[in-house]
């Protein structure tokens, strides 16, 4: 008996993991939220939403201030770990810094993951105008 699934089949999604990901994304979108607002936004019961949030809080992925929940800094640490292991980031960081210094403008280092462009690194050159774009939030669908 084999436990490996056929590569052409869609993987079985675990509801708890899918809901956890939805909660994390919703807290980002809503810029933090209380249990009622989040449960309404996600179409989940308040009790389930509370238990998910309590678990995420216990693992430092979410923090609670008053009655508001927001994303915790553990996500930043995990994201930095992933970025620092990325070979493009490790070899491209200095090139992006050099480009920003040479042009005096903003320079960004993007990569593709699952059809989306993800900004790994951005540098503001000395002559760059404005405060910059929120390119770290830009995740555009990449078409073939």
Features:
144 residues; alpha+beta; Arc Repressor Mutant, subunit A; 2 domains; two-stranded antiparallel ribbon; two-stranded antiparallel sheet; 4 strands; Helix-turn-helix domain-containing protein; WH_DNA-bd_sf; Tscrpt_reg_IclR_N; HTH_MetabolicPath_Reg
Q: How does this model look, in words?
A:
The chain has 144 residues and is an alpha+beta fold. It has two domains: 15-76, Orthogonal Bundle (Arc Repressor Mutant, subunit A), CATH 1.10.10; 92-137, no CATH class. It has five helices and four strands. The strands form two sheets. It has a two-stranded antiparallel ribbon with strand order 1-2. A hairpin with a 2-residue loop joins strand 3 and strand 4. The longest helix has 17 residues, at 87-103. It is extended.
Question: Layout of SSEs?
Answer:
Blueprint: H1 15-29, H2 35-42, H3 46-58, E1 62-65, E2 68-71, H4 74-85, H5 87-103, E3 107-113, E4 116-123
Antiparallel strand pairs: 1-2, 3-4
Helix pairs in contact: 2-3
Order of helices and strands: HHHEEHHEE
Helix percent reads 40-55%
What count of helical segments does DSSP give? 5
> Which architecture of the largest domain would the CATH scheme give at its second level?
Orthogonal Bundle
What is the gyration radius calculated from CA atoms?
19 Å
Any idea of the CATH class of the largest domain?
A: Mainly Alpha
């Amino acid at each position: 008996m084999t436990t490996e699934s056929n590569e052409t089949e869609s993987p079985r999604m675990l509801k708890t993991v899918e809901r956890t990901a939805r909660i994390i994304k919703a807290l980002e979108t809503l810029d933090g939220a209380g249990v009622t607002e989040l449960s309404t936004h996600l179409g989940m019961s308040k009790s389930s939403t509370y238990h998910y949030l309590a678990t995420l809080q216990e693992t430092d992925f979410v923090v609670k201030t008053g009655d508001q929940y927001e994303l915790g800094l553990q996500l930043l640490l995990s994201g930095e770990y992933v970025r620092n292991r990325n070979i493009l980031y490790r070899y491209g960081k200095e090139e992006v810094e050099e480009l920003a210094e040479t042009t005096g403008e903003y320079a960004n280092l993007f990569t593709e993951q699952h059809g989306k462009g993800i900004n790994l690194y951005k540098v503001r050159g000395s002559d760059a105008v404005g405060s910059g774009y929120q390119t770290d939030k830009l995740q555009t669908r990449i078409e073939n």
